[in-house]
Amino acid sequence: MSAPQIIVLPTGVLSVNTYLVVHGNEAIVIDPGGDAPEIIRQLGDAKMVALLLTHSHYDHLGAVNEISAAFPAADYYCHPRCAARAASAAANFSAEICGEKYAVAAPSKPLNGGETLKLAGLKMQTFFVPGHTDDSLCFYFPDAAALFSGDTVFAGSVGRSDLPGGNGGQLIREIKKMLAVLPTETAVYPGHGEATTVAVELQSNPFL
Ligand SMILES: [Zn+2]
Ligand SMILES: [Zn+2]
Predict the structure, then answer these.
(1) Would you list the domain boundaries of the chain?
(2) Could you give the C-alpha distances from 9 to 68, 109, 182, in angstroms and in order?
């Protein structure tokens, strides 16, 4: 099968980067923050087989119900604490962020970090990277040389740690631990802003 295609689509109220990893006629959707019709349109003929959430903040999950309804056979994966908060409008800050209560209704498959799965014919490894939240996961696809980092590491920056469950020291330690085991040429696709690489962040990220 051909190499996977990665599509980035800014969605929702805070322009989160929603990523579509399309492999053949199957796709994985990461952090559908909003704009469900546009995500579904971009999928084209590809069928979503898995939906992944990096963490429980509303800006990353505001279209989970709509996307799940469009692909009811797909599994939805996240950390167990993320699943609990996604299911609670009070805990995912949806009212604060968009003025509307939103709770994810779909049942999730738990990931704690350290797992290796095969999704859409692609190997995926999970990293538990707490510090921005205590339910943050990063998803590494070795076949695509790609890491989806959520709100942990950004191009030249790191996620905020002043929200509930945040811990700045822990965030830096956990990011460093993860980057140390990834090939330096790995592309890093963050939850907001431009993509980068492991090599660039190790050399020039002032927080690391
Ligand atoms: Zn966040
Ligand atoms: Zn975010």
Answers:
(1) 5-204
(2) 18, 24, 25
**Ligand 1 centroid from CA 55, angstroms:** 7
Average pLDDT, the chain: 96
pLDDT for 98-137, tens place per residue?
888 999 998 889 999 999 999 999 999 999 999 999 999 9
pTM over 0.85: yes
Ligand nearest to the CA of 162: 1
CA of 189 to the centre of ligand 1 (A): 14
- Short-list 205, 57, 49, CA closest to 118: 49
Contacts of 41 (CB under 8 A, 6+ apart): none
Q: Is 141 strand, coil or helix?
A: strand
* pLDDT-based confidence at residue 57 (cuts at 50, 70, 90): very high
Q: How far is the CA of 44 from the centre of ligand 2 (A)?
A: 26
For 11-35, what is each residue's pLDDT tens digit?
Answer: 998 899 999 999 999 999 999 999 9
Contacts of 205 (CB under 8 A, 6+ apart): 153, 156, 157, 158
Q: What CATH number is given for 5-204 in this structure?
A: 3.60.15.10
Q: What are phi and psi of 116, to 5 degrees?
A: -120, 125
Per-residue pLDDT at 127: 98
